[in-house]
Amino acid sequence: MSSKKTASDKPSVPCPTCKKLVEWSADSPFRPFCSERCKLIDLGEWASEGHKIPGQPVYDDVLSEDLDPDKTRH
Question: Which positions does UniProt annotate for Zn(2+) binding (predicted)?
Answer without folding.
Answer: 15, 18, 34, 38
